[in-house]
Amino acid sequence: MTLYTVGTIKNVSIEDEHGQIRVRRYVSVDGGMSDNARPVLYDADYTVTLANRAPAGEQVLSRVVGKHCESGDIVVRYCYLPADLQAGDILAVPATGAYCYVLGSNYNYLSRPPVIATSAGEAAHPIIRRQSEDEMLALDTGF
């Protein structure tokens, strides 16, 4: 599972297949196609849930998007998230697994996240540590 921190939230008016104007909420997170390229490459379909607290109120049609400012940088295309979602909340995207890590990149100079192993009743253990900015830039020879 991948954990993301919510950033900006904005509502966008869209026209549905029946010509009706609806509002879709866009929820940006602190990752995206650099840590999960499967939605843009393979049209992978994920679910998402609020992970850091109990939701309150109704669920709102949402789209979870990454921070890369690319049209394909969509983490979850269609989902319902709590109306009271706010910046700083944590979203969990299950079933992201090993393939997401090996497909990951430093796109837009984002460092790669850590991989943490856990099991019911067990302490969490990092198995791959977070990449530092210095490590990411180490191959850059400059001019």
From TrEMBL:
InterPro entries attached to this UniProt entry: Ala_racemase/Decarboxylase_C, DAP_deCOOHase_LysA, De-COase2_C
NAD keyword on record: no
PANTHER family the record matches: DIAMINOPIMELATE DECARBOXYLASE (PTHR43727), GROUP IV DECARBOXYLASE (PTHR43727:SF2)
SUPFAM superfamilies linked to this entry: Alanine racemase C-terminal domain-like
Lyase among keywords: yes
Annotated organism of origin: Rothia aeria
GO biological process, one term: lysine biosynthetic process via diaminopimelate
GO molecular function, one term: diaminopimelate decarboxylase activity
Cofactors named for this entry: pyridoxal 5'-phosphate
Segments forming domain Orn/DAP/Arg decarboxylase 2 C-terminal: 17-97
Gene3D superfamilies, A to Z: Lyase, Ornithine Decarboxylase, Chain A, domain 1
Name of the molecule in the record: Diaminopimelate decarboxylase
Domain of life: Bacteria
UniProtKB keywords: Decarboxylase, Lyase, Pyridoxal phosphate
Pfam assignment, any one: Orn_DAP_Arg_deC
